[in-house]
Amino acid sequence: MWLSVEGLDGTGKTFFINKLKDIDLDTTVVKIGKPEGETIREIITASLKTETKFVANLLEVMQDLSIPKLILQDRGALTTSAYNLYLSTGDIELTHRILDHYNKIPKPDITFYITAALDTAMERLYARDFLSDKELEKEKSLFVGVAPYFDLLLKENKQFVIQLSGENK
Predict the structure, then answer these.
(1) Which of 10, 87, 92, 136 sits at a 20 to 30 Å CA gap from 26?
(2) How far apart are alpha carbons 107 and 103 in whole angstroms?
(3) Which strand (E) or helix (H) includes residue 70?
(4) pLDDT per residue as tens digits for the range 69-86
């Protein structure tokens, strides 16, 4: 079974994943890295390529019976696409490419979408101690800007999603 945990930074994804791992299920956790690039187009193109490669590898892994049957994905297509849609604002062609890509790729059996209030997320990000004030302001802008794209993608795609509040641990 393929499970994906999605959401914005500071909402409680890592906490949720660690709690699932604590149950001691035979689980493999996979994570998609953040894309590198100098321009928004390069970031998004790199991200789409990373996502496509990841899905191809994941499907191969899932077919191999020697691999655990529960695969827990730390961020996936939903989160990647929501961030990329926000970054592509104003570029209609790129927005259509992202939506088309998202609609075509396989989806997890179950997606856990974790949400939290901006204040809660920022408090958690601040507590991490490795983000500068400038980085925290950027995270705040991303949180506010990206959130509506999660709603758009979930409305457009009929996949099995369990929405959880990350407000309380």
Answers:
(1) 10
(2) 9
(3) strand 70-74
(4) 677 788 888 888 888 888
Q: What pLDDT does 144 receive? A: 93
For residue 85, which of 77, 53, 125, 139 has the smallest C-alpha distance?
77
Contact 146, 83 (CB under 8 A): yes
Structure tokens at 97: 């490419």
Pair 4, 106: CB distance under 8 Å:
no
Residues 13, 75 contacting (CB under 8 angstroms): yes
Q: Quote the mean pLDDT of the chain.
A: 77
pLDDT in tens, 133-157: 898 998 899 899 999 988 888 887 7
The H or E element that residue 4 is part of is strand 2-7
Q: For residues 79 and 70, give the distance between their C-alpha atoms in angstroms, rounded to a whole number.
A: 20
Q: Can you tell me the distance from the alpha carbon of 142 to that of 154, in angstroms, rounded to the nearest whole number?
A: 18
CATH class of this structure's domain 2-165: alpha beta
The residue ranges of every structural domain in the chain are: 2-165
Token output for 57 = 């590898």
Residue with tokens 């695969």, as numbered in its chain:
71
